[in-house]
Amino acid sequence: MAIKKSELYSSLWQSCDELRGGMDASQYKDYVLVLLFVKYVSDKYAGLPYAPIVIPPGASFNDMVALKGSPDIGDQINKKIIGPLAKANKLSDMPDFNDPSKLGSGQEIVDRLTNLISIFENKALDFSKNRAEGDDILGDAYEYLMRHFAAESGKSKGQFYTPAEVSRIMAQIIGIGGSQTNNSTTVYDPTCGSGSLLLKVGDEAHAKVTLYGQEKDAATSGLARMNMILHDNPTAEIKQGNTIANPLFAGEDGWIKTFDYVVANPPFSDKRWSTGIDPASDPHQRFEHFGTPPAKQGDYAYLLHIVRSLKSTGKGACILPHGVLFRGNAEADIRRNLIHQGYIKGIIGLPANLFYGTGIPACIILIDKENAHSRKSIFMIDASAGFMKDGPKNRLRDCDIHRIVDVFNRRDESDPKFARMVGIEEIEKNDFNLNIPRYIDSQQLEDIQDIEGHLKGGIPGADVDALQAYWTVCPQLRKALFSANRPGYLDLAVAKKDIKPGIYGHPEFVTFIDSMNALFADWQQRSTGTLKDLQAGCHPKLIINELAEDLLAHYADKPLIDQYAVYQHLMDYWATTMQDDCYLIAADGWKADTYRVVEKNKKGKDVDKGWACDLVPKQLIVDRYFASQQAAIGELEAALDSLAAQMAEMEEEHGGDEGAFAELDKVNKASVTARLKEIKGDKEAKEEAAALDAWLKLCTSEADLRKKLKDAEAELDALAYARYPTLGEADIKTLAVEDKWMATISAAIHGEMDRISQTLTKRVKELAERYETPLPKLVDKVADLSDKVAAHLKKMGFQP
């Protein structure tokens, strides 16, 4: 049986994390990822003629497995595996597998390395059929491990990994996916870290492009080289060194090599950026026409390096802290010169706490040299509010990424609180300050209390007008809910209790909901056919991309409903359930195989927890084929609940000091039976005996019901289990696609439609209650109550 993709990643991480002991994750990752690398290249290239990676004899993963348990395992891995492999493929900076300061000594290092190798012997980690399309276990497993290592590595070590979500945005807005992209297209990352950002841009090209990267840290640059190989880019050039002090890529003319696309996530506000260089006489002329960055703020040093590294039509994207948008002095001069040159095409403000090395908010600055001199504006996006919490960090959702990319690529200004095209003249009036809040007011409008409405009554017309999106769809609904009061104010035309039925039952609203249901049904029918056509060997990433893009387009420009919220429901379900199902189908086809669930108890022994089926869970079988048996079980459960309630009521009624249960330490069958024997024949205990006897009868009935329920559940379990071997492929498709996937997606999207009506209902009721009692009425009511209190006090003889 194929292992679930999500379970593979999590078990891989948990196993590795358990083994690292006290070692810092930023160091331990080197060992784990080298093993992943050795496993991958052994599976994919061992024995393959003309392979881009050479596997010397005796240096494969199987040879490493043979070393498990050896007393000198670390030394042998270095000499027989890592050394020859690195030499044959010109890899450097490989970790030392015989380092006692990191891995321990004696039996500790033997056990640790042996167990670590065993993790990668998992049969699910077979990369021999790894697909170049990126739809493979390896790429995602690598990203999963890198994200967790970055999260665990602390503030100073998170720079080796750019969150995949941010990389995806940069890759999609830089414009690399055009028809002109080919093998001669060059992409460069001057601070490439582990290479994840560079690879994301390469993937977005939809064609093989040439990748270049430079990384200051020796161990991380080695990791980047392996990452390129792991992601089927063995010819990518990764060099190690300080990019600012010594850029290692030179063009034919001796100057810095220029590229078609440059992306970077440099260290924020690098205080040592000028080490090894005299900025005033930079031989590469990176600062000559713009200004020299401050000695203790290196952000613009990296941005200007990008500008210098771009061809005349090149495009770049750089992640920088927000300070570069508004800081003064030397940085203000550089910013002014960049704007005058027309190089800044766009700025995207991101949420805070996205990056592993810092919690401060960052932005993406888009550089575009093509048509720079004619550029008269900068497109700005404030995406700071769109994210989800993910442990201690924030993370961009799929819908956040898609919205940013869509709005930027279309230059969509339909939501001025999210995006604007800002003219250079306006920027100049603000002294070339690019701070996003100066140009985009993303603050939500305050819900203002209307003084006249509180004094004189009546719902302000402005508040009702603010619901114009609803009235556009249902123009007569407004007239049904509100009536005229005086100019600018309205009254509720229905009783408060009738607001909800008045909205839900209005013909225009019913028509709208029906149209939304029909809209989803249309997509559901089309998608159901597509999903049922899936076969073994399909590419799940392509499947979800086509499915999600179709859903997003299907809900585009539809009133009231947010197309990105609908899209996110599908992506959430994909991440939690549907992805694993599609990978099962890709591996095995439409099979609904059951398996035993075995767990280890505290003593380490296997305990059988029953059976399960991942693609078609038991409940789907029960719902479709054994509904009557399930209903009977439901009736038994309801009867049990009723009996339990009666018993609890009796225990409450007779539980006092003088009650029938007063003499019992515990109220259970044994103690009640023993008490009945004690008082048998005692005429003075007749009432107590009657109560105890009544409780005991309920207890007996409960025991009988529990046995019936257990037997019924066992019978249903056997019926369901026996049904699986009889299922044909058509049955499995119906159960998985219709009963499981589409039913869940339908419930989520219809829940989105429910929120539309609930939001309107809640707001109308809120406005009605807010202004239903004006101040004069309140004053009169207070006066009336005061008079009543005074009258009562007078009757009681109190004279104020």
Explain what this protein looks like in three dimensions.
Residues 10-120 form the N6 adenine-specific DNA methyltransferase N-terminal domain. It is an enzyme of class 2 (transferase). Among the domains are: 1-153, N6 adenine-specific DNA methyltransferase, N-terminal domain (Ferritin, Up-down Bundle), CATH 1.20.1260.30; 164-440, Vaccinia Virus protein VP39 (Rossmann fold, 3-Layer(aba) Sandwich); 617-726. It is built from 28 helices and 16 strands. The chain is globular, with a radius of gyration of 35 Å. The strands form four sheets. Strands 3-2-1-4-5-7-6-8-11 form a nine-stranded mixed β-sheet, sandwiched between helices. It starts with a helix and ends in a 5-residue tail after the last helix. β2 (210-215), α10 and β3 form a beta-alpha-beta unit. It is of the alpha/beta class and 800 residues long.
- The number of distinct helices, counting runs of at least 4 residues, comes to 28
Q: Helix share of residues? A: 40-55%
Task: Give the radius of gyration.
Answer: 35 Å
CATH superfamily of the domain at 164-440: Vaccinia Virus protein VP39
Q: Return the average pLDDT rounded to an integer.
A: 89
Structural class: alpha/beta
Low-confidence stretches: 131-135
Number of separate strands? 16
Q: Would you state the CATH class of the domain at 164-440?
A: Alpha Beta
**Major beta sheet, strand line-up:** 3-2-1-4-5-7-6-8-11
CATH topology of the domain at 164-440: Rossmann fold
- The coarse overall form would be globular
Distance between the termini: 88 Å
Instruction: Give a quick account of the main beta sheet: strands, pairing sense, barrel closure.
Output: 9 strands, mixed
Strand content: 5-15%
Q: Which second-level CATH architecture of the domain at 164-440 applies?
A: 3-Layer(aba) Sandwich
Domain N6 adenine-specific DNA methyltransferase N-terminal: 10-120
Keywords: Methyltransferase, Restriction system, S-adenosyl-L-methionine, Transferase
Organism: Massilia antarctica
Pfam families: HsdM_N (PF12161), N6_Mtase (PF02384)
